[in-house]
Amino acid sequence: MKRTMWVAVTLLLILSSLLVACGGQPAAPAAPAVEAPAAGAPTAEAPAVEEPVAEAPAAEAPAANTGAEITVWVDTTREAGVQLYKTLHPDVADLVNIELVDRGQFPAKVLLFNNTGSGWPDVVFAEPFPLVAQVADENHAFPLDLKDSVPSELINGFAPGALDPCTFDGHLYCLRNDLAQVVLWYDAKLMEKWGYTVPTTWKEYEELGAIVAKDHPGALVGTCGDDQCLTSYFQGSRCPVGQVISGTEVRINTQDPKCIRAAEMLDRMIANKSVDTLSPFDPAFVDKVKAGNLLMLPAASWYGEYVFGGKPDSTYYQTAEGQLGVALPLKWEGEDQIFTGFQGGSAWSVSRHTENPELALDVAKFMATSHEYQDTAVTFPAFLPAADVWAKTVASNPVYAFDPYPVLKEAAGMMTLEGLGNIRYDWQSAWNTDVIAAIQAGDTIVSALPKLQENYVGLAKTQGYDVVTQ
Amino acid sequence: MATDAGAIAAQSSGQKNTLKSAWKRWGFKPAHLLVLPYLILLIAFGVGPGVYALVISFAKFEYGKPQLFAAGLSNYVSAYTDFRFLGAMKNVGLYLLISLPVGILGVMFISLLLHARHDRYGDAMRTIYFIPGAVAGPTAVLLAIFMFDPNISPFGPILHGMGFETVNDVIVERHLPVIFTLLGVFAGAGGWIAIFYGALNNVSEEVIEAAIMDGCNALGLAWLIKRPLIMPFIVYMAILTFAGNVQLFAEPQLIGAANVAGISKYWSPNQLGYAFAFEQANFGSSAALSLLMVAIGILGAVLILSTTNIFKAD
User: Residues of A with CB below 8 A from B39's CB?
Assistant: First the structure.
């Protein structure tokens, strides 16, 4: 019995040492690879590995191969746009492969590809932060600096500040597809019927909410049920949940008066039931909207076409009868400037590993700036020449009470990165775990802020940030 | 030349002899070949990755590439002092505390009950219990999300009766250990019931008859006669369930992804390990944490085995 044991153990040891030997082989050259990349890797990578953030010369790389295929990672909403590119460019259509992906996996996948030295997508559609911010760090070293490869007249065409979320230490790592500026949507018919005026400040908003809750029980002026609550109410207030000081330093202070004022307002409005605690996409919330209970909703610009819609398959309004009004974002008491947040506003980034930078860049430029695609997109184009034509698309939608474009365009200039900037940590999940779960358990937002602080600080540190908490 | 050839031949025949004697001396039997396929798989998918993790856990990662043995113990320190580490360990500890006794006692109870009826009805019920096992882990989670939604679940009236109104009231972080226990029992109990039932069928008729002759009632028969005889299987289940439940990953990951109210992405240690690797690009800490989970699993097995002495069959 004992002898058999020993035999088994010996055999196991021999085999596992063999395995180590095998496993060691690919791992061994990996260490010097930091200086000189493995032979199989595209040559464009060589300087990028040495100094991944500072340099991104893939565009001039000799390895550029105009016949190489590229892979474009998009979501279902953007798939049609890439298809359109293929239709309009039949000569390269065969070279463009479309892959539908969950872009939340983007940074993780890049790490895997970095380890295997191949497989990177060439063009990716993703939010500037945290996603592009994460793949821009030295471990991921993924995006190509577009500053020199995109003509300046194209760059100047973007809305003022639109490319700020894509700019990291002076490098331009993505082109914004759209702006998702938060505005105040409202039901114009209901507003008129009930005889209210559209608020211009958060104070008026709260007061109107209290009146609505009393006079029309069940009616809502907003909701705080997911991370859009953070961008709708706190980001415009410049609550420092991720204030970028430098590439290595962030300021997080959820006890800042700019956080407390938004939290206290929402706590009062949740208590008087004028603000709901469901996600705006929760079926139960959608039912309330369909039942005509939503008077106002501070939400992103894409809500107009994509959520309210006014088409039979739209989420909120299935009919278009001029019922949707839009107003500028709300102003905080005692401030003379309006600031607003943004929910999404994803962007196109190009891989610095791409073998066909010319084509990859062309696709990214087409998606972000072309009239063919952007003029009729569901989102507000970040590229203003396209946005001005897009204005006609929205103006022709009979769901709006009036042309929403002037308001949306003005709001586009009010977006702020002051409290929440290009950070690498996942600010959305922590918000949901700590704040939304607390609200739904009947606690106040104010009472949840200390835990949120702890969580954000911890997350920021794991991403290598020094954290200032004052 | 010829002498050389002769020498080689003699040498090789000598080698054959020593090989043969070694074969004999070490007690190899043809039966050992039957273990070989398992051994190969164990090494390829168990020991191998384990050794790889051990190597990686001492590696420093720069620009996403490992520098072997450059990290010392720093990966271990950063993994075990992470601000989410204790919370995750507490979560999984609580889950084990609930799921292990419920799972083992529940399966024991049902199997003994079934075997008391030891007829076609018992056989049929065993098969019925086995069916949910066909729903693999992740699918069971998706199913569970519907089952725990008071507004669409067939158990809606019960959930409403317990004071729950929406799925967000049911699936909250402090309910997770119970929810995962229910899930685990639903999906896993059937297989164990079949195994226990088979083991009970092997209990010799004479023993049972003798016990009945001695005036043993059904309860005594189950607890005093049958249970001790299937004890090795119970211990086996305890070891596997413990090791499996420590490694909880898919369930909290999926429930967290599906539920907006926000179950932490770092609920279980394995989720934290995943975050180390794929959010922070720190494969070293991820490996260090994984090794800890393996160590806990092995420690659990050793503890159970050494305290029960159950496999001392021969």
Answer: 11-12, 15
Give me the long-range contacts of B161-169 (CB less than 8 A, separation at least 24): B166/A284, B167/B259, B168/A440, B168/B259, B168/B260, B168/B261, B169/A440
Q: Which residue has the higher pLDDT, B119 or A88?
A: A88
Check CB contact of B174 with chain A, cutoff 8 Å.
no
Residue B127 structure tokens: 């098969």
A4 contact residues in B (CB cutoff 8 A): 27, 32
d(Cα B185, Cα A255) in Å, to the nearest integer?
A: 44
ipTM exceeding 0.95, yes/no: no
| A and B: number of Cβ contacts within 8 A | 122
Helix (H, G, I), strand (E, B) or coil at A181: strand
CA distance A463 to chain B (A): 6
Query: Which residue in the set B52, B169, B260 is minimally distant from A279, CB to CB?
Result: B260
Q: Are A326 and A403 in contact (CB under 8 A)?
A: no
Interval B184-212 mean pLDDT: 89
At A431, the amino acid letter reads W
- Write the pLDDT tens digit of every residue in A156-194: 999 988 999 999 989 999 999 999 999 999 999 999 999
Q: What are the b/e assignments for A155-186, b being 16+ CB within 10 Å?
A: bebbbebbbebbbbeebbbbbbbbbbbbbbbb
* Chain A residue with Cα closest to B261: A437
Whether the link from the prior residue into B132 is cis, omega within 30° of 0, is no
CA distances (Å), origin A405, targets A183, A185, A190, A289, A310:
12, 13, 21, 23, 17
Task: Look at B27 and A7 and tell me if their CB atoms are within 8 Å.
Answer: yes
CA distance A169 to A246: 8
Alpha-carbon span B275 to B283, nearest angstrom:
9
Min Cα distance B297 → chain A (Å) is 20
What phi-psi label fits residue A325: left (phi over 0), alpha (psi between -120 and 50 degrees) or beta? beta
pLDDT band at A58 (very low <50, low <70, confident <90, very high): very low
* Residue A36: closest CA among B19, B63, B192, B71: B63
Residues of A in contact with B168 (CB under 8 A): 440
SS3 A308: helix
Q: Which pLDDT tens digit goes with each residue over B233-289?
A: 999 999 999 999 999 998 898 888 776 567 888 999 999 999 998 888 889 999 999
As a whole number of angstroms, the distance between CA B4 and CA A357 comes to: 66
Kindly state whether B175 is in contact with chain A, defined as any CB-CB distance less than 8 angstroms: no
* B262 contact A CB<8A: yes
Check CB contact under 8 Å for A140 and B281: yes
CA pair distance B272, B246, nearest whole angstrom = 13
Out of A111, A429, A431, closest to residue B281 by CB? A111
Averaged pLDDT, B62-84: 86
Overall residue count recorded for chain B in this entry: 314
Which residues touch A77 (CB under 8 Å, ≥6 apart)?
A378
B166 touches chain A (CB under 8 A): yes
Token pair belonging to A138: 């030295």
Question: B22 CB near a chain A CB, below 8 Å?
Answer: no
CA-to-CA dists, residue A23 to A30, A116, B50, angstroms: 12, 14, 12
pTM value is 0.82
CB-CB: which of A23, A27, A138 is closest to B63? A138
Question: Are the C-beta atoms of residues A114 and A33 closer than 8 Å to each other?
Answer: no
Contact A11/B39, CB-based, under 8 Å? yes
Query: Which residues in chain A are contacts of B48 at CB distance < 8 A?
Result: 16, 19, 23
Q: Rg of chain A over CA atoms, in angstroms?
A: 25
Beta bridge partners of A186: A296, A325
